Amino acid sequence: MNASAPVSALHHVTAISGPAARNVRFYTNVLGLRLVKKTVNFDDPGTYHLYYGDEAGRPGSILTFFAWDHVAPGRLGVGETSRTSFRVPRASIGWWTQRFVEAAVAHKAPFVRFGEATLAFKDPGGLSLALVGVEGAEGEAAWASENVPAEHAIRGFHGVTLLLRDAVPTGEILSNVFGQRKIAREGAVTRFEAGEEAYGRYVDLHAAGDFLAGRLGGGSVHHVAFRAADDAAQAEMARKLVAEHRIGVTEQKDRNYFRSVYFREPGGVLFEIATDQPGFAVDEPADTLGQALKLPAQFEALRSRIEEGLPALV
User: Fold this and answer.
1) Number of domains in the chain
2) pLDDT digits (tens, 9 = 90+) for 66-95
3) Residue 187 CA: distances (Å) to CA of 2, 120, 129, 164, 282
4) Is the pTM of this model over 0.85?
């Protein structure tokens, strides 16, 4: 770990899904996450951009989706995120296994990875996910939904697994730019940790060698975002990428709920650096997050047309 680098855990993960209504049903009803923002894609305002997270939409809890009804399925390969994992209380893995059986969710039998009970499953669009049982998570605040009681509820991200030809160059970015440290290795997978941050503290690098390249589509992760406390921290990370790693970084983009820069890390995965502020309560009260369609300012004049074209979510 570079001692001078600000330590950055996960901010959010953005993936590609199929029909929006199916996506909402699964993530709110089956997984019990809160829909914290209902908006549209900045580059395609006819497409929903849906944000799920904990009760406040805290950084490190947010999984977002671009929802396209007729998207072609993606193909998992190197240069992609192969799994996104959530945290649950350790004693809840059995409860979730039974829930997945009853809800006909595609899943594997629980297994142990890095000493932690892990339940791998897929969402209806084919996205690879997991629940990881974490000691002490039961003492954390949780969003209690109608279908998932607080005692078993998801407590933010555990981490992501990146499938790469060579893990070393990506590990250098995690260490030097994001201040993470290498803490363990299990087979071909090396684990990095972002300090003591509870949410989204792990990035696992799976070195797959000459594996098939991935193809973006339904069930794929589009990008992985890391946290920046503020604009200055983000600018310092961007400076390091350019000056020390010769990696190009985009100009800052205002995403309403955070400000972002993007770059392609050496293994091919699209990374984002997103500020913690202003957060999801900037345009609607915290107690009604996700209930109304929120549009970027440039699309507000087109609201009627956009609302008519978007599919119903119920």
Assistant:
1) 1
2) 999 999 999 999 999 999 999 999 999 999
3) 25, 18, 20, 14, 44
4) yes
